């Protein structure tokens, strides 16, 4: 669905705005994404924006088909010597429409989840377009864990958004804001505190 690109581009622009006035200490702050800092996540988003169907095959081969190694090499390649340089690189790729061989809604997941990986630890609040969050949530819910999704994780429960008309699955209910549901099923355990219901423990 080509209509994903305007939403992706808007999210990239919003994140650039939020990054513009950060201090160096904030750029070095731990993100919600593993051991990566805010600076590392920004570099990862640059690499994602530049990824092509052929390019990811070459990069995976260089990483000996280790996905985590491929991501780490992408961060190292795209991270600038200074936050300003990295920000400039992010601005340069903000309107790109290149993509790996994956459904286009995966581009929304990258922008929303990684945007929150940066914003939440820094106390930056963004009200995302509902469509961006809902489509990301639905994509993660139907995508196997082996491909970065949460299909098997959520199989025992029902996800119900309290701020959108979304209900996914059956079983013990997990309810809360759609954004927090998305973050929780994307492996961000800190978002579990935003959720209620008898099924929450299944996501821990």
UniProtKB/TrEMBL annotation:
Recorded superkingdom: Bacteria
InterPro entries: DinB/YfiT-like (IPR034660), Maleyloyr_isom (IPR017517), MDMPI_metal-binding (IPR024344)
Record domain Mycothiol-dependent maleylpyruvate isomerase metal-binding: where: 8-98
Any matching Pfam family: MDMPI_N
Keywords of the record: Isomerase
SUPFAM superfamilies found in the cross-reference section: DinB/YfiT-like putative metalloenzymes
Molecular function per GO: isomerase activity
Protein's recorded name: Maleylpyruvate isomerase family mycothiol-dependent enzyme
Source organism of the structure: Rhodococcus jostii
């Amino acid at each position: 669905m080509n209509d994903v690109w305007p939403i992706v581009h808007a999210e990239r622009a919003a994140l650039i705005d939020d990054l513009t006035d950060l201090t160096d200490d904030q750029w070095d702050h731990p993100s919600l994404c593993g051991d990566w800092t805010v600076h590392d996540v920004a570099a990862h988003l640059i690499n994602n924006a530049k990824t092509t169907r052929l390019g990811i095959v070459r990069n995976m081969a260089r990483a000996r088909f280790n996905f985590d190694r491929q991501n780490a090499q992408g961060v190292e390649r795209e991270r600038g010597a200074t936050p300003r340089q990295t920000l400039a690189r992010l601005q340069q790729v903000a309107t790109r429409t290149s993509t790996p061989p994956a459904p286009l809604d995966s581009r929304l997941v990258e922008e929303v989840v990684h945007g929150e990986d940066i914003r939440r630890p820094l106390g930056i609040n963004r009200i995302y377009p509902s469509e961006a969050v809902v489509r990301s949530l639905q994509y993660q819910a139907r995508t196997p864990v082996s491909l970065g999704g949460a299909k098997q994780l959520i199989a025992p429960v029902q996800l119900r958004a309290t701020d959108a008309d979304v209900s996914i699955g059956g079983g013990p209910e997990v309810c809360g804001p759609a954004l927090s549901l998305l973050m929780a099923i994307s492996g961000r355990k800190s978002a579990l505190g935003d959720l209620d219901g008898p099924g929450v423990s299944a996501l821990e």
